[in-house]
Write a sequence for this structure.
């Protein structure tokens, strides 16, 4: 038993040396978990420094309050233009939003005539159009409510919204951590898959089988070696890029997150080996891995909550390790959850990892048998 453990350890060291000389894969690891995380977190859909103008046909106290409430960093200082300039300004793309406050707006409001405020939106700026219009609508509603001060025209109660775990609703807090999870999955599948195909293309699997090694030992060595590299790089990315460079606060326990990452890496590295046993070359492996990446990224709860998906799709994605790791990571890092809260996700990570490992081991043994014959 000790000899087998020593063989697995030494074979893993061999994998680390092989990766060291594969400069392209080293570049991918560094890029995905440094610049890739930073760039993805900066390309959010938050409204920031949006160009806005106001057509103030009322010139009242209330219209002035609305003008002063459009603050940075969401909007640039509003420009005041005339009603005749709206079409030309929007056609030339000078503003993303133009608010037209009609004449006698304040007077009509006090007289309960329910006046309309027109918000012109440049919908070619899809990333901020809908969200920015919602911000403006909320700002105008809040200013009207403050102005009326619980008169008969206003509602009888205030609606107070408190956002937990991310009070300013900054997408960079969420996207940076989720991007690390996405990139961990991509790198784990690529590295282990490339390691298996590299052995096959170089004809070194036969050499390994001539040694006192079993397919189980070869697989386990590739999993721990590549998983270790990704875990070290992801941990450095979490500290250096997310916490230090992007200044994203981590509320929960990073060691507990790393424990879950180990289980997640066990799952996705096994999946990478499974895909490599199906493909016969690196191009085939790449084409096979792309839809797997996309499904794991788009349907695991990173971009769309699981509750918003069709029921059958939800059930299918329960067999994806990324679904459980996203839930685990969000609970631990954002909500400071302990093991008493996330134990179910951890168990499911180990369970899905075991399924992929067994499937990959069966396929790996079969592929070796075919090659030997």
């Amino acid at each position: 038993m000790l000899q087998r453990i020593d063989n697995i350890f030494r074979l893993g060291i061999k994998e680390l040396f092989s990766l060291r000389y594969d400069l392209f894969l080293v570049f991918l690891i560094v890029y995905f978990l440094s610049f890739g995380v930073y760039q993805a977190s900066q390309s959010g859909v938050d409204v920031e420094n949006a160009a806005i103008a106001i057509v103030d046909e009322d010139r009242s106290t209330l219209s002035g309050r609305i003008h002063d409430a459009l603050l940075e960093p969401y909007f640039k200082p509003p420009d005041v233009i005339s009603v005749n300039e709206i079409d030309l300004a929007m056609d030339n793309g000078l503003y993303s939003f133009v608010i037209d406050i009609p004449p006698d707006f304040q007077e009509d409001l006090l007289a309960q005539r329910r006046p309309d405020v027109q918000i012109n939106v440049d919908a070619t700026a899809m990333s901020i159009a809908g969200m920015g219009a919602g911000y403006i609508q909320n700002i105008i509603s809040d200013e009207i409510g403050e102005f009326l001060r619980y008169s008969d025209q206003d509602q009888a109660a205030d609606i107070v919204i408190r956002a937990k775990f991310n009070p300013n609703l900054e997408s960079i807090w969420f996207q940076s951590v989720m991007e690390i999870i996405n990139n961990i999955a991509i790198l784990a599948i690529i590295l282990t898959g490339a390691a298996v195909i590299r052995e096959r293309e170089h004809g070194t699997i036969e050499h390994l089988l001539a040694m006192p090694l079993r397919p189980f030992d070869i697989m386990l060595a590739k999993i721990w070696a590549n998983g270790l590299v990704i875990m070290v790089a992801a941990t450095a990315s979490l500290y250096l890029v997310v916490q230090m460079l992007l200044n994203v606060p981590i509320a929960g326990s990073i060691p507990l997150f790393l424990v879950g990452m180990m289980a997640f890496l066990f799952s996705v590295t096994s999946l990478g080996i499974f895909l490599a046993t199906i493909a016969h070359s690196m191009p085939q492996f790449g084409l096979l891995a792309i839809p797997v990446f996309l499904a794991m990224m788009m349907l695991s709860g990173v971009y769309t909550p699981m509750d918003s998906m069709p029921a059958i799709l939800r059930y299918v994605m329960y067999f994806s390790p990324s679904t459980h790791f996203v839930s685990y990571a969000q609970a631990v890092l954002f909500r400071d959850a302990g093991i008493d809260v996330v134990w179910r996700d951890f168990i499911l990570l180990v369970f899905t990892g075991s399924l992929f490992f067994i499937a990959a081991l069966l396929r790996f043994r079969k592929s070796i048998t075919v090659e030997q014959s």
